[in-house]
Amino acid sequence: MTSSSRVAARHAANQPPHILVVRNDKLGDFMLAWPALACLKAAAPQARISVLVPAYTAPLARLCPWIDAVIVDPGDAAGKQAQRELLAQLRSERFCAMLTLYSTPRIGWLGWRAGIPCRVAPATKWAQLFYNHRVVQRRSRSDKPEYLYNVELAEALLAAQGWQPQARPAPPYWPLSPGTAAAQRESIAGALALEPSRPWLFLHAGSGGSAVNLSSSQYAELAAAIDSRLAADDIRAHWVLTAGPGEEPAAHELCEMLHDRRLQAKVLPPRTGLADFALALSAADLFVAGSTGPLHIAACLNRPTAGFYPARRSATALRWQTCNDASRRLAFSPPEGAGESEMSAIDLEVAATEISALVSRRVAAKSAS
């Protein structure tokens, strides 16, 4: 049966098409899948979209407006019984198509065993043998952003199903309901005694163990340089320090370093979970971090971002570019000739000048509106 025949058969049975999207690795990788999910929903609004994700990103998946259902992946280390239960669930969902944004042999095997007729994945490594639609991308060259590679895979699935891709959706890829960001800002202002009229600069110094990042002393130097430039423009900023699990002591230590430099700094109080933490980032006027999950959450919310990246080819600023508007993102890496992870080679004075200019433009635009 051809793809168009399958689509017609589904319509005849009055069954909406059901698509499974797999991104079951790290938080930042999952956030960079949201543009692809938006692409699928724009072209096939009648489709039901389920995602297979690990337990720790599932709370965010349940907030994604492009996702209809969440299936939790027990992971590679789960026992045979958990793997059998996952296979049984995938079979029972009767998916018409599966889009695997990062393929592993276990996931490819599951899709094949589940009998999903259309299976799309990058043409990399031997796991591609389980897929009947393979897309050559050569991601290791890092020629374009990860989220665009994901969008191209989504468009390949749409073509395989006989659906016409629409114009690619634009940021924000996580549009919030009216009043959500204002409510977050009001709540944080009350908890930390912040002045709502001032710009709030969020700084996330942690890395989650997955990214090369600036040191705490470098972040303190950067924040002081930004603050002095903003003060010269009569802009008084609040610094809000965020932290992941286990990173709270380092955030408090950095906060003391900022106090020593006479900056107005507070640590964001502990949140009730990942979803609550993510929503809090909507209150930021700027989010500063390494190439970590929180940076990509802020970008999905289309908050202005300043990211710090190593020069490693697999982790470049282009490959892991944030998916917010181009006018709202800055990226900094070690200069050519420096070691690929030599973050101390980044010129923090140049970074401070560019970041403070972005904040000043945002303040001026807000004042004019």
From TrEMBL:
Keywords: Glycosyltransferase, Transferase
The keyword Glycosyltransferase appears for this protein: yes
Recorded superkingdom: Bacteria
Pfam families the UniProt entry points to: Glyco_transf_9
InterPro entries per UniProt: Glyco_trans_9 (IPR002201), LPS_LOS_Heptosyltrfase (IPR051199)
Name of the protein in question: Glycosyltransferase family 9 protein
